[in-house]
Specification:
Oligomer: single chain
Strand order of the largest sheet: 2-3-4-5-9-8-7-6
Radius of gyration: 64 Å
Order of helices and strands: HEEEHEEHEEEEHE
Largest sheet: 8 strands, antiparallel
Number of helices: 4
Length: about 375
């Protein structure tokens, strides 16, 4: 072997590309340790992954020093220093002693000889890199859930005087969310409110008009015909009674322009009681005001006093009676008005209560619903 290729202690120098690597690992005879299984979730434990502990903060003394003036141009700064007084010259100092001579470098030290019984690789054997030290793998982190877990909604505040807070609406899933495999949506039955709203609307829209329209439908239209006999009253057909009836019909046509038909007649009894009845049929929207107007129209003719109101017991029908005089005799004038007819009578030799009762009987016999 040439001298230039020989190293210390007579060993051969390896080329740069054939430099030996780290020593081969020593065989220990033990098998590789498998990673531990993931721990099982206990009862009541949350399925959320346990967050990793935060990394410790780096100590100030371990940080790399940073030059605050790195990259700054400090050549143009004009620094003015204070004038220092002139100092006396320094005295000569003792020179440093010369360092001791060092020994020349003789190469790296020779490797230690292996212990007895250890196999030695022959010269020229290939070297293998040593594997990194075995390390236990970190426990597997469970994957995040397929859908984000929404935060619980905040409980609404209760306001004074407003009752209990309204029900919290469910949170809608975010856009693009897909249900996990095997998920079956359960339909939530919602309480229907439209039947009650519909019934209330029908009651308000149809019930109120029907309540006010029922009397009109039961009283309009109506027809009138004078019977020949009512109780002990007989219809008189002499010339004087006929002329009186015609005059009363004409007055009714002039006083009630909306009347479609008019009637008038004179009844009498064998005892000398006389009843003159007249009226008409048509349509009267406000029968109560028409009854007051009819008494006011006859007040001057019969010198009537304050009218008295009688309850008929029929919706939409109003009776008024007043005491007056006709040709020096006391009379009672009564009128009965509903939506379809008006009937007025002049009674002699009867009280105001009997006159109101007899007018109701005459009306039932004269006016009929057509």
């Amino acid at each position: 072997m040439p001298a230039k290729d020989a190293g210390p202690s007579g060993t051969r120098v390896m080329p740069a590309d054939e430099a030996p690597g780290p020593p081969a690992p020593r065989w220990s005879g033990s098998a590789a340790v498998p990673p531990p299984p993931p721990p099982k979730r206990g009862w009541g434990e949350s399925a959320e992954p346990t967050p990793l502990p935060p990394s410790p903060a780096e100590a100030p003394e371990d940080r790399t020093p940073v030059d605050p003036w790195a990259g700054a141009d400090t050549g143009g700064w004009d620094l003015h220093s204070a004038e220092l007084p002139e100092l006396p010259p320094l005295s000569p100092t003792t020179p440093y002693p010369a360092p001791a001579p060092t020994r020349p470098y003789s190469g790296p030290p020779a490797p230690a000889s292996p212990p007895a019984g250890y196999p030695v690789s022959p010269p020229g054997a290939p070297s293998y890199p040593s594997p990194p030290p075995a390390a236990y793998p970190a426990p597997p982190v469970p994957p995040p859930p397929a859908y984000p877990v929404p935060a619980p909604p905040a409980r609404p505040k209760r306001r004074w005087g407003r009752g209990a807070p309204a029900a919290v609406r469910p949170v809608a899933p975010p856009p693009g969310w897909q249900a996990p495999k095997g998920y079956v949506p359960v339909p939530v039955r919602r309480r229907r409110k439209w039947p009650w709203v519909l019934l209330l609307t029908l009651a308000c829209c149809c019930g109120c008009p029907a309540y006010w329209a029922t009397p009109m439908l039961s009283q309009v239209p109506a027809t009138a015909a004078l019977p020949a006999e009512v109780k002990d009253l007989q219809l008189r057909d002499d010339s004087r009674s006929t002329q009186t009836a015609e005059e009363l019909k004409a007055e009714m046509r002039n006083a009630h322009l909306l009347a479609s038909d008019t009637f008038a007649g004179v009844y009498a009894t064998r005892a000398g009681k006389r009843v003159t009845v007249f009226g008409g049929t048509g349509f009267w929207f406000s029968p109560e005001s028409e009854a007051d107007a009819e008494i006011a129209r006859l007040r001057e003719k019969y010198d009537l006093g304050e009218p008295k109101v009688f309850d008929t017991g029929v919706r939409g029908r109003y009776d008024r009676c007043a005491v007056g005089r006709d040709g020096g005799a006391d009379v009672v004038v009564c009128t009965s008005v509903d939506h379809g007819s008006i009937a007025t009578a002049v009674f002699t030799r009867l009280s105001i209560e009997d006159s109101a009762s007899l007018l109701g009987t005459l009306r039932e016999q004269i006016v009929t619903k057509s």
